Amino acid sequence: MGDHRGVTAAAGTDVDRSDPGGRAWLERAVASVEADALRSADTHLLVFPLPPEWGVDLYLKDESTHPTGSLKHRLARSLFLYALCSGQIAEGSTVVEASSGSTAVSEAYFARMLGLPFVAVMPASTSPEKIALIEFHGGRCHLVADPATVYDEARRIAAESGGHYLDQFTNAERATDWRGNNNIAESVFEQLGLERYPTPEWVVVGAGTGGTSATIGRYLRYRRLPTRLAVVDPEGSAFFPGWRDGDPAAAGLPSRIEGIGRPRVEPSFVPTIVDRMICVPDAGSLAAMRHLATVTGRRAGGSTGTNLWGAFGLVAEMVAAGRTGSVVTLLCDGGERYAHTYYDDDWLAAQGLDLTPYTPALEHFQRTAEWRPPS
Asked: What's the pLDDT score for residue 142?
């Protein structure tokens, strides 16, 4: 039968890798992250002003009120809990992320809370306001010239430091509990409970990692709700052609709308739960962002404008068809992060972005419910 000694462990061998000190730190870390969730009141569901006679209500889930000012606070919390409970982050671990800004801001916040060093790998084009926020929360920014290299560079830094790469683009859809547990979908439906149309016809979101659309789409199916999910995507992004053509290898361009749109279809994007996709021109996104400020006095970022552009089109379709109901979308972050970019006319001109054809279309929609975007 042969002698297997040296090939397998001897009978009776007991390998114990438990670390009471490490487990105690882990328990304190998880409790700290959970305590942050309890301290943070739920975000508001705002009403966007539309004429009541249209019979369609539009809501914005205001994610800018999180402690770190954006929708990504939810994702960062989930990613940290996922990595902590998977044994991937320990006391003293360097935490690394590839991020265009807002996710890294939130992750830097949680890293500092746990006393961990944090490195954000991001394109050099990221807004200076976001870089300053990451550094304010104790993170270090590692800028790269080619946005396509952020993934490999983040892996390299994590490996060389003996740390952990959070990898939002792979883990976003698995780190969040899509069944409920106060996720964003459950929160929206609870807040709509006393509205005249408590079950929306559409929920409209953008895709950066794909985690938010995956969470909402799965929740809708799990709760057996008739609500449909629309995903808006900036021009040039890979998500729209990848979904349209059923091609997970579809390629795109780096997005000018920070936080959404990607040059590749990210692993966390789940196309099978998306009912409709809408490709939105960048100038349309930014015109809608500014339209929000004009109508409500609230300044938001470009991704909120992308959401609104898609939501306005769906509202117009409902009114034209004589259907009543509601539509929900997200206010992803505040406009203060983009003072030197999206709200700067000189920056828009340098980018070749002309909002002139899009602004009248938005004003016409606000008056008439007719949607006539520039062709």
From this structure: 96
Residues near 287 by beta carbon (within 8 Å), at least 6 away in sequence: 305, 355, 358, 359, 362
**CATH for 42-70+179-368, among 3.30.830.10, 3.40.50.1100, 2.40.50.140, 3.30.450.20?**
3.40.50.1100
Give a three-class secondary structure readout of 164-232: EECCHHHHHHHHCCCCCCCCHHHHHHHHCCCCCCCCCCEEEEECCCCHHHHHHHHHHHHCCCCCEEEEE
Write the single-letter amino acid at 12: G
pTM above 0.85, yes or no: yes
What are the Cα distances from residue 88, in Å, to 85, 99, 108? 8, 19, 17
* Separation between Cα atoms, residue 87 and residue 25, nearest integer Å: 12
Beginning with the edge strand found earlier in the chain, give each strand of the sheet holding 118-123 in spatial order: 140-144, 118-123, 95-98, 164-165
Q: Which pLDDT tens digit goes with each residue over 274-304?
A: 999 999 999 999 999 999 999 999 999 999 9
What CATH number should be reported for the domain whose range is 72-173? 3.40.50.1100
Q: Where are the domains of the chain?
A: 42-70+179-368, 72-173
Cα–Cα distances (Å) from 194 to 12, 123, 133, 198, 270, in that order, read 63, 43, 37, 7, 31
Cα dist from 149 to 39, 137, 157, 251, whole Å? 37, 24, 12, 15
Predicted confidence band at 15 (pLDDT cuts at 50, 70, 90)? Answer: low
pLDDT reading at 136 higher than 70: yes
